Amino acid sequence: VEQYPNSEHSVEALYKIGLDTLFKQRDIAGAIQLFKDAASKKHPFWSMAARTSLGICYYHHGSTQKALFELRKVAFQDIPTTHSVTALSFMETIFLNDGNIKEASRIISERVKQLKILIKKTDRDNSKDRGEYLYHLGISLIDANERQEGIKYLTEAKKLGPELLGADIYRAVVDALTHA
């Protein structure tokens, strides 16, 4: 990090050291600083991951407005990404925890829209990413009271099988279908 502060590896390292600081050392203030540093580097992948983690840390540190500010920077990019969908999920949780159902519903709609774009991009490939997008879209639609459409996407994800999805996602898909 010190030798090559502006390299991709440096940004990745800052992010991962931030995670270590948060989870192993239980130092949220230290993690916040590391995530800020990584986010400031503006790397298209690692800075977005860091900014999402920064938002979550702010929320758990009692700074809801700062959390939403950081998460919005990730959630509303020109092109949807895994990070934007993740940021939207956390924003939804924050709004639901605060009792702001109207804003949570708006965020669910945005997440559904972004997931459909990501799924369309993976139309021709049966990848783990596609399976995860299908799973998250199914859950999002069920959350939005569109149960039948949600089940359709979960069923499509299930067809990809545990070998492609991995055991954890496959189990989550099966559980979601069982409880839908």
Characterization of this structure:
The structure is a single chain. This protein is an all-alpha fold and 180 residues long. It is built from ten helices and no strands. It has helices at 8-23, 28-40, 46-60, 64-75, 82-97, 101-121, 128-143, 147-159, 161-165, 167-179. Helix 3 packs antiparallel against helix 4 (64-75). The N and C termini lie far apart (46 Å). The mean pLDDT is 94.
Key features of this structure:
single chain; 180 residues; mainly alpha
Distance between the termini: 46 Å
User: What percent of residues are in strands?
Assistant: under 5%
Task: Give the integer mean of the pLDDT values.
Answer: 94
Order of helices and strands: HHHHHHHHHH
Number of strands: 0
Summarize the structure.
With 180 residues, this protein is an all-alpha fold. It is built from 10 helices and no strands. It has helices at 8-23, 28-40, 46-60, 64-75, 82-97, 101-121, 128-143, 147-159, 161-165, 167-179.
What is the fold's blueprint, element by element?
Layout lengths: L7 H16 L4 H13 L5 H15 L3 H12 L6 H16 L3 H21 L6 H16 L3 H13 L1 H5 L1 H13 L1
